[in-house]
Structures are given as C-alpha cells and as structure tokens.
Amino acid sequence: MADPMYDQSEAHHYVPVEVYNVDPTIHSTAAYTEVNLCIRLSGNKGNDVTLTVMGTDGSYYSVTTTRVSGGPNIGCLPAIKVDMTPSTKYQLDIAYDPTGDSGANPEWIFEGTFPDGKIKELRHTFNSNDGPMLWTIGNKEFKALTIGSPLTFEALASDPGSDDLAFAWIWSDFTPYDIHIFAHPGVFYTFAASDMFDLLPYMEQKFIFADNSIRTPEYDPIRALDSVNHQFAEGQMPYFLYVTLIGTMT
C-alpha cells in the first residue's frame, strides 16, 4: 500500500517482445521395398546351391537348396526389406557345389517376387565339370530388379509448438503430390492429393483454443512418423527422379 504522506506516482516500462514460430524438423527418412528371393535348381541329383545376401547395414540372409529327383528344387528366403537409399549396398553370392552329382550341367534361376506380384529372374548355368563355382550379383544389378515395383517412403518429423504437421511428398514424375496431415492434439490424420501446394486443407477452424496465458504451450510438441507408397513407371526409371519431402505447418 502507498504511504499517504508522500505524493503518489505511477510509471510504466514496456519491453517489446517478438515471438517467432519455429519451423518443423525432419529427423529421418527411409525408402525401401520388400522382396521374396528364391533359388531354383535343376539337373542331376547331388547339386547344392547356397544363396547368401549381405548388406552394408549388417543384414545377412542365407538359404541352401539341394537337387533331388523330380521337378526343379526351390529354396526361398523370408521376405527381405531392401533399403533403396544409397547408404545401403547389397551383394548376393550364389555358391554352387556339384559334389555327388554325375556330371550334369544344371540350370540355376534366381528370382525375386515384389510387392506388386511381379517376378524378376536372372538365369545362370553352372557346369559341374568345372567344380565348385561362385556367382556374384552386385548392388546395381540387384536393385535394378526393383524397377517398376512399389516403394515405401517413411519420414519422422516434429514441431516444438502445437501446430498441425504436414508431410508433402513430391514425386517429380508428373503425378499429384501426396500430402498427409497430422492434426494436433490427438491422433487425428487426414490425407490429400494435390498438384498445388496451396490446396492443403485448412484445418485450424477445427482446433480453436482459448488464449494460453502460461509460458509453456497448452499441448505437448507434435511428433509424427509418416509413410507413403509410390510406384514409378518402369519406362521412367533409366532417368534420375527426385523425391522431395517438405515438412510444414498447417
């Protein structure tokens, strides 16, 4: 309380504060496909073939098939998740051991079944008279088998505020953008496809809150993992096609 023995005065001091919104952050991206790899072996009994798949990301798979009588013998690996980014390279080794056969020249077929049901084959003929042999399929030849198959793209992003978070995938193959919106708060999710970036659905009218007078946001920061599938036409693949991801607030 003011002392009545003294004159009263009142003063104000204004400190202008400018608050900037913070852009969202894309933490990680991934691109992959899944494939079922098999080896098919014909020829005389006693031939063994081992398929080994090794990735620079530490992945390792192996399956061995032994030729017996009857139709061709087939050995398959479980579905393999193939990283399509340049950071992971693969090498496939096919080791042939003719021990125990009677001199046949078996035909060996490597085949892969991709998510759209397409089967891609690589053929090779081993001559048992030459003894054990090794056939290697390099990274470029292996990944070329995925041309025209569906790919899965993933991205993890966050925003420190309470904004809605949008992922805009731009494919550079003249197909519409894929736009996924994660609305805050909660687990709301909206999908849109558009050729124009300004056609993002306007969602703020659905999320109007009272003024927040405390220092921390009314809701926690938003974080979302987005996933989208895209299939490039097989005839486009000899050219470089750039996939662009824009993380934005709506």
Secondary structure blueprint with pairings:
Elements: E1 25-41, E2 48-55, E3 60-66, E4 73-76, E5 80-83, E6 90-97, E7 107-113, E8 119-125, E9 133-137, H1 139-144, E10 151-159, E11 165-170, E12 177-183, E13 188-194, E14 222-230, E15 244-249
Antiparallel strand pairs: 1-4, 1-5, 1-7, 1-10, 2-3, 2-6, 6-9, 7-8, 10-14, 11-12, 11-15, 12-13
Explain the overall architecture.
By secondary structure, this protein is an all-beta fold. Strand 7 (107-113) and strand 8 form a beta hairpin. Helices cover 2% and strands 44% of the residues. The chain is elongated. Mean pLDDT is 78; it is low at 202-216. Strands 1, 4, 5, 7, 8, 10 and 14 form a seven-stranded antiparallel β-sheet that branches. The protein starts with 24 loop residues before the first strand and ends with a strand.
Short account of what is shown:
With 250 residues, the protein is mainly beta. It has one helix at 139-144, and strands at residues 25-41, 48-55, 60-66, 73-76, 80-83, 90-97, 107-113, 119-125, 133-137, 151-159, 165-170, 177-183, 188-194, 222-230, 244-249. Residues 202-216 have low confidence and may be disordered.
Features:
mainly beta, four-stranded antiparallel sheet, 2% helix, seven-stranded antiparallel sheet, 250 residues, 15 strands
Low-confidence stretches: 202-216
End-to-end separation in angstroms reads 49 Å
Please state roughly what percent of the residues sit in beta strands, choosing from under 5%, 5-15%, 15-25%, 25-35%, 35-45% or over 45%: 35-45%
Shape estimate: elongated
Helix content: under 10%
SSE order, one letter for each helix or strand: EEEEEEEEEHEEEEEE
Broad structural category? mainly beta
